């Protein structure tokens, strides 16, 4: 999310509503619905634009991430862009919903950084009223399973601005390992911020899953 590859100013594609629901086990055609203890991750829809605009453009959510679209129409264009990237097989972006509800309250995204998803990067943003509620951890575990089991990711990276306390805390609690400091790597409000590079490799994730453990008992 910090470096969301979408750039509205470069997107000249005309938005079109999909013809109808797609039934497929192929994630490029339609992302699966992934259900955990409290949340369901599902594919984004054009109708998610309004709630995502309301929840992800607040100062506290957008403080350490690339500027989100500034209008509902901008979010519609972003969603259409995510679906095109998904169809091309390079990127997947899930809406976060509370189990039993359909409103999108955040997103989890993963994009390949090497062809075929051998290495990939993930990011996330959730409406601040849902912070500290377990939504992040539940959604993260679903996303990680999708990344390692469906996309066959071998190495999953994430970046968090050093000053993004919650972002760093969130990554650590799902087992991400600090690997490096990327000095002055993120331009944010005309300032260059240092970022922490976090990594989860497939072996760590498999070990954690097999051991039935997660979080702070992760293999570091
Ligand atoms: C990142 C995000 C999805 C995490 O969701 P969340 O609900 O806030 O995460 P959680 O509360 O489950 O976990 C955050 C952890 O960081 C800890 N934390 C909070 N502030 C902290 C700080 N300043 N320094 C260190 N740790 C901190 C919390 O205590 C918590 O750990 P705990 O559950 O063991 O107490 C959410 O904060 C968000 O959307 N932020 C804005 C978008 C963003 O920055 N995305 C990029 C992240 S790299």
Please, could you describe this protein's structure?
With 220 residues, the protein is an alpha+beta fold. 29% of the residues lie in helices and 27% in strands. The protein has six helices and eight strands; from the N terminus they run E-E-H-H-H-E-E-E-H-E-H-E-E-H. Strands 1-2-3-4-5-6-8-7 form an eight-stranded mixed β-sheet, sandwiched between helices. Helix 1 packs across helix 3. The longest helix is centred in the middle third of the chain and has 17 residues, at 72-88. It is globular and about 40 Å long. The two termini are 25 Å apart. The structure holds coenzyme A. Coenzyme A (COA) is lined by residues 1-2, 61, 64-65, 123-126, 131-132, 136-137, 160, 164-170, 173. Coenzyme A is lined by residues 1-2, 61, 64-65, 123-126, 131-132, 136-137, 160, 164-170, 173.
């Amino acid at each position: 999310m910090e470096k969301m590859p979408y750039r509205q100013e470069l997107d000249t594609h005309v938005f079109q509503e999909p013809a109808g629901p797609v039934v497929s086990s192929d994630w490029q055609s339609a992302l699966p619905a992934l259900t955990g203890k409290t949340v369901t991750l599902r594919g984004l829809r054009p109708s998610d634009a309004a709630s995502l605009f309301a929840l992800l453009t607040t100062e506290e959510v957008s403080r350490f991430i690339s500027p989100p679209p500034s209008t509902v129409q901008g979010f519609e264009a972003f969603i259409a862009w995510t679906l095109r990237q998904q169809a091309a097989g390079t990127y997947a972006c899930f809406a976060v919903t509370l189990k039993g509800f359909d409103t999108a309250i955040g997103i989890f995204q993963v994009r390949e950084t090497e062809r075929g998803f051998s290495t990939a990067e993930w990011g996330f943003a959730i409406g601040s009223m849902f912070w500290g509620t377990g939504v992040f951890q539940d959604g993260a575990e679903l996303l990680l399973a999708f990344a390692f089991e469906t996309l066959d990711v071998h190495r999953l990276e994430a970046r968090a601005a050093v000053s993004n306390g919650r972002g760093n805390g969130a990554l650590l609690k799902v087992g991400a390992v600090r690997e490096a400091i990327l000095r002055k790597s993120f331009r944010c409000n005309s300032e260059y911020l240092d970022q922490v590079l976090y990594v989860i490799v497939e072996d760590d994730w498999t070990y954690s899953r097999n051991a039935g453990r997660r979080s702070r008992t992760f293999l570091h």
